[in-house]
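Recall that a protein's primary structure is simply its ordered list of amino acids. Everything else, from secondary elements to tertiary packing, is in principle encoded there. The following example makes that idea concrete.
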Amino acid sequence: QVQLVESGGGSVQAGGSLRLTCAASGYTYSRSCMGWFRQAPGKEREGVAVITNGGDSTYYADSVKGRFTISQDNAKNTLYLQMNSLKPEDTAMYYCAASGWRPWCNLGVDFIYWGQGTQVTVSS
């Protein structure tokens, strides 16, 4: 059974940084995608960053390019999202997600496993 558990959210002032962590267990797809998504109140969920399992390719939403970095530690089955220069519009619930077997990745692929989310709040 696949389980994704996020941590690292919190409250920060604009311009600050946070690092989100997603601990994955039971996930054995060697050719697949992992990613971070977010959903603000009253808005649709949006893809933030995606990485091919193995880490050779990454994809970012335009709104976070240059500020956020997705990475993973395969030995620890852990996914990260380093968020710098945070803005109030980054305030949202952030979710870790994983796909099934996929030959390629981008922000639009289907993700079938989801964590419970971690809240990020950025104040101005």
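The longest strand covers residues 18-25. The radius of gyration is 13 Å.
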